[in-house]
Each structure stands twice: as structure tokens, then as C-alpha cells.
């Protein structure tokens, strides 16, 4: 936190939170006129658990989840739903750039493999898998879902960081 430049803090919050606020602010009146609708915000597992040295990013993702709940509660009576999708590691150009940045002397592909294996399913998500969750929340099959945070994380936030040795009695 101490090394996060205030300009970086402001930029991350503007891109990740203020943009969602402004989008919803201008979309809700149109949805109201249309008789309702669904907003799906993209957050992250970083809203629940965090890595080191990502204070602005983690704070912004937590804010997205809080904003999602506020929009959902404020507009449910107008049949306007709002939910958040919270992915774990997703194989995207942004994640690959992060691997390049943090790989040091390692092959970035090895680092990406490690990140994938950190998920109980043993891999990263594909962008299409996250898109499917977004499509579900945007569509009619989720008509009774609002204010929720759908984790699309391969079990990452469900797993404890400490594993116990195998006990033959279990």
C-alpha cells in the first residue's frame, strides 16, 4: 500500500469502478423505460482474497461488488437486476502480460502453468467460460438472481491454502 502511487490508485478506481458507476447511471433510465433488464459487472476473486502488491486492484474489485449490491437493491422494484461475475485466473492477453512481467528468469508459460495449477480444477479459465456465466446472469434463466457475486474461479476461493497430509483412516 505504501508504494502505490496516488495516480495509479486513482486510475485503477476510475477504470474499474467509476466506469461501471457511470455506465449504470446512464443505462438505468433506459432500462426503466424498457420495463427492466440486467446489468452484469465483471469483478474478480480479488474482491474476496488478494495477492500482495495489488492494493488498488483488490480495493476496486471489492468496490465493484458493493456497487453491484447497491444497484441491485436500489432498482429491484423496477425489475432491473444487477450481478457480478468474479473470475479467477483467465487466459487473457492481460494475464499473459502479467506473466511476462513477473516471470523473471523463468519461462512465462511455466508461471502461467503454476497459476493454473493453483486452482483446484488445475487450470485457468478460458474467456468463453466467463462469458457463459455473464450470459446466464444477463438472460431470462436468472430472472430471480440479483445482487449476487458468481465466482467463476475453478474452486480457487473454496480451497484452503494449507493441505493436510493424507490419512489412511479417511
Automatic annotation (TrEMBL):
<protein>
    <recommendedName>
        <fullName>Enoyl-ACP reductase-like protein</fullName>
    </recommendedName>
</protein>
<keyword id="KW-0560">Oxidoreductase</keyword>
<dbReference type="InterPro" id="IPR020904">
    <property type="entry name" value="Sc_DH/Rdtase_CS"/>
</dbReference>
<dbReference type="InterPro" id="IPR036291">
    <property type="entry name" value="NAD(P)-bd_dom_sf"/>
</dbReference>
<dbReference type="Pfam" id="PF13561">
    <property type="entry name" value="adh_short_C2"/>
</dbReference>
<comment type="similarity">
    <text>Belongs to the short-chain dehydrogenases/reductases (SDR) family.</text>
</comment>
<dbReference type="InterPro" id="IPR002347">
    <property type="entry name" value="SDR_fam"/>
</dbReference>
Amino acid at each position: 500500500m505504501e508504494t502505490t502511487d496516488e495516480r495509479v490508485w486513482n486510475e485503477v478506481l476510475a477504470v474499474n469502478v467509476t466506469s461501471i458507476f457511470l455506465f449504470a447511471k446512464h443505462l438505468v433510465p433506459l432500462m426503466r423505460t424498457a420495463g427492466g433488464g440486467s446489468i452484469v459487472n465483471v469483478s474478480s476473486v480479488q474482491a474476496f482474497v488478494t495477492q500482495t502488491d495489488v492494493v488498488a486492484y483488490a480495493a476496486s474489485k471489492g468496490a465493484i461488488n458493493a456497487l453491484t449490491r447497491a444497484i441491485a437493491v436500489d432498482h429491484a422494484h423496477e425489475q432491473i437486476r444487477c450481478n457480478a461475475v468474479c473470475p479467477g485466473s483467465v487466459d487473457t492477453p492481460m494475464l499473459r502480460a502479467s506473466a511476462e512481467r513477473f516471470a523473471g528468469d523463468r519461462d512465462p508459460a511455466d508461471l502461467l502453468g503454476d497459476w493454473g495449477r493453483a486452482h483446484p480444477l488445475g487450470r485457468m479459465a478460458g474467456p468463453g467460460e466467463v462469458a457463459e456465466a455473464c450470459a446466464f446472469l444477463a438472460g431470462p434463466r436468472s430472472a430471480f438472481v440479483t445482487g449476487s457475486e458468481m465466482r467463476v474461479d475453478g474452486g480457487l476461493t473454496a480451497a484452503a491454502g494449507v493441505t493436510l497430509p493424507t490419512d489412511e483412516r479417511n
